Amino acid sequence: MSNACTHLDQIRDVKPNSKGCAECLKRGDTWVHLRMCMICGNVGCCDDSKNKHATQHYRHSQHPIFRSLEPGEKWYCATSTSWPFEFE
């Protein structure tokens, strides 16, 4: 069994679509950590946040790969495996 991610070919050169979780900002809500979709640039809050907007984005869009937007963190994760990995 291979642990290689099968979604790497879907990664795009995207920019964050907002300076925080787009949905939380609209609602005036807060988040714990930020994740960015590597297909479209959507910024959502992590699953430690009460709203879990990054996961909601995946369920709605089926965009399977995201990265951390936290300072100093360079990891990515595929929603199908939940295994973080570094990708340069």
Explain what this protein looks like in three dimensions.
It contains 2 helices and 5 strands; from the N terminus they run αββαβββ. The chain has 88 residues and is α+β, with helices and mostly antiparallel strands. Strands 2-1-3-4-5 form a 5-stranded antiparallel sheet. A hairpin with a 5-residue loop joins strand 4 (75-78) and strand 5. The longest helix has 9 residues, at 53-61. The radius of gyration is 12 Å and the shape is globular. 26% of the residues are buried.
Number of strands: 5
Note the gap between the termini: 24 Å
Order of helices and strands: HEEHEEE
* Major sheet: arrangement of strands: 2-1-3-4-5
Radius of gyration: 12 Å
- Average pLDDT taken over every residue: 83
Q: Low-confidence segments, ≥5 residues, pLDDT <50?
A: none
Helical stretch tally: 2
Main beta sheet: 5 strands, antiparallel
Shape: globular
Percent of sequence in beta strands: 15-25%
What structural class is derived from the secondary structure elements?
alpha+beta
Task: Give the proportion of residues in helices.
Answer: 10-25%
